[in-house]
DNA sequence: GTGAAAGCGCTAACAT
DNA sequence: ATGTTAGCGCTTTCAC
């Protein structure tokens, strides 16, 4: 413990120290209403020397305004989400609003708990990853009466509105690009699906577009846990042993794709001549790899920014009309591992 | 917006719907005091069908208890911090406490602002990265009267208590290990220092231990911004052009070290025979690299866990005595890039 | 086992 | 430009 006095300072303390009414002290501290320069200075002086920190709990209760935006994401260990957060923060920093992060570990029940906790603080808005939620979660969000933006995914029906990309379409487009380069014997590696709806949708779009050309994925493998880089490498090795004839490897994220890249390089395989590869996300982290991985930008920061803008505008004016779904369009980055010369 | 009714539900609504007094409803919802099974069920039923979510703002004001722990870190984009957070969350999940994250971007003034915001919510404790803070921040923390754990670093004087490693010592030990392997012409690459005290201390410890053996770093370079992997690669290339005689490269983090590794591999340099390298952190991310990088574990999750335990125990009982400084001891992981055969 | 009254620290609304 | 009053939605305390 650091202090002797167990009682935190209140407005009253500042009021007494400055000889100004509580109300006026409150006005000064919030920059609201007209206060004379002289009083303002007295108050600020007193607050500063006392070390007064306002009690937002009381303020929020009295004003029934809480300048918090709940941001609910599956994980912080996947760089995608911190990048979305950056976008959110960048926009909210221009406003009174503050993001508060909750992590669900991809578990629907945990999402429900986290959401309940967050809503009990009566935030001004919610930004939540994905369109899949428990019934209870959807009910809470609907009942909350605050703006809700579901992010990252647009393949589904939003509760309120959504900003993201279509992962099904992303999968389809990657499939088309791969076929166009003449690859035909394709393997897929990704995260275990039930947990990750967006990865699942990409895979579905991918296989669907292949099927349209009469092609099926030759081999597939799903992992969970562990270092993505190492897993990507292991899975690739195993898959090549099972299916030496593969000519393309599609990965559900860039990290495992990078692992695969290392394995192919170690085996001295010609990339992208003999085997091509592609990942997903466009994480800048990978800029310095020996080869530039083919990937697809998931528009992470942009999604965060747009979502925050929607919340901010609706907090200012709940009546503003908003598009139900804002679909951003990711582009394929061919890098050095997809385009055959 | 999702709902029609702009007024969120209150205890009174549940009270009326269930025909039980507000007080008893409150007791049921908090599992406090004796309530008959029959009443309890009535209340739970009513709360559920209404979709009542308690208002923690009001609850916190009335009880002057807030089960929030402020966790203040420089960034979420450096994997180190999400890993610390995992440790914190893991421990706090066993308690009533909840972590709330604030990000400072390594800026002391932003730290001050974030801290002020967080303290205004009257959290039960603070976990904050580093021992360097503005005077105002230190004053706020002292005046808060709540437990404060400064983490990641033990080279300095904590406000209340600290859990971390000595980065000076880490730097010294790496220097000794490098010298012991016979390396003598050493280069250093790292982040721009003023922003990152822990990297600075490692560098200081490093040069100090070299100096003791009459050795100086031959070349050094500092970067900021951009992809760490790419930067590591660029800096390494540039440094080798300036100083072809280098026989060891020490990096302030694993990400730039990995970039350096790629550059050395691309140049066909014998590692660790001709040139050795080492990074810092032990990020599991790097498990799948072509060579296992020498590094030093920063005990991230353990630091998070320990810090959370201290907060939790002090919230339960403010009187429990605590060590001022808990210093964990990182070990060198030699990998394949430091130990000459 | 249940209820009534008071008040947490602030701000909205209305004085002056 | 400043002060007064009431009350935000809960929990504490005390009564029954």
UniProtKB/TrEMBL annotation, chains A, B:
Q: Which molecular function GO terms apply here?
A: DNA-binding transcription factor activity; transcription cis-regulatory region binding
* Domain HTH lacI-type, chain residue ranges per copy: 9-63
Q: What CDD domains would the database entry show?
A: HTH_LacI, PBP1_GntR
Keyword Transcription among UniProt keywords? yes
Instruction: Supply the Pfam families for this chain.
Output: LacI (PF00356), Peripla_BP_1 (PF00532)
Q: Which UniProt keywords apply?
A: DNA-binding, Transcription, Transcription regulation
Q: Which domain of life is it from?
A: Bacteria
Q: What is this protein called?
A: HTH-type transcriptional regulator GntR
Q: Which species does the entry assign this protein to? A: Maliponia aquimaris
The opening ranks of the lineage are: Bacteria, Pseudomonadati, Pseudomonadota, Alphaproteobacteria, Rhodobacterales
């Amino acid at each position: 413990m650091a202090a002797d006095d167990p009682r935190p300072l209140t407005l009253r303390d500042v009021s007494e120290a400055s000889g100004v009414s509580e109300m006026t002290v409150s006005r000064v501290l919030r920059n609201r209403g007209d206060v004379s320069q002289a009083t303002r200075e007295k108050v600020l002086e007193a607050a500063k020397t006392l070390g007064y920190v306002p009690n937002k709990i009381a303020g929020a209760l009295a004003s029934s305004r809480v300048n918090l935006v709940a941001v609910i994401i599956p994980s912080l260990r996947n760089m995608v989400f911190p990048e979305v957060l950056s976008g959110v923060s960048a926009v909210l920093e221009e406003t009174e609003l503050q993001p508060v992060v909750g992590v669900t570990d991809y578990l629907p029940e945990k999402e429900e708990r986290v959401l309940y906790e967050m809503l009990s603080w009566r935030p001004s808005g919610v930004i939540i990853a994905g369109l899949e939620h428990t019934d209870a979660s959807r009910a809470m969000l609907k009942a909350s009466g605050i703006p809700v933006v579901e992010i990252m995914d647009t393949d589904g029906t939003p509760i309120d509105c959504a900003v993201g990309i279509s992962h099904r379409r992303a999968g389809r487009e990657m499939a088309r690009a791969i076929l166009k380069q003449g690859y035909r014997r394709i393997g897929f590696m990704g995260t275990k699906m039930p947990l990750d709806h967006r990865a699942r949708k990409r895979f579905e779009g991918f296989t669907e577009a292949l099927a349209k050309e009469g092609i099926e994925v030759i081999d597939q493998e799903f992992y969970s846990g562990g270092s993505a880089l190492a897993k990507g490498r292991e899975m690739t090795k195993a898959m090549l042993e099972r299916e030496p004839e593969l000519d393309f490897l599609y990965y559900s994220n860039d990290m495992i794709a990078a692992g695969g890249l290392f394995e192919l390089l170690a085996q001295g395989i010609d990339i992208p001549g003999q085997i091509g590869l592609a990942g997903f996300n466009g994480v800048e982290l990978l800029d310095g790899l020996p080869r530039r991985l083919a990937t697809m930008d998931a528009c992470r920061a942009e999604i965060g920014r747009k979502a925050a803008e929607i919340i901010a505008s609706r907090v200012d004016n709940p009546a503003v009309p908003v598009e139900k779904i804002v679909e951003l369009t990711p582009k394929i980055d061919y890098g050095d591992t997809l385009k055959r010369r």
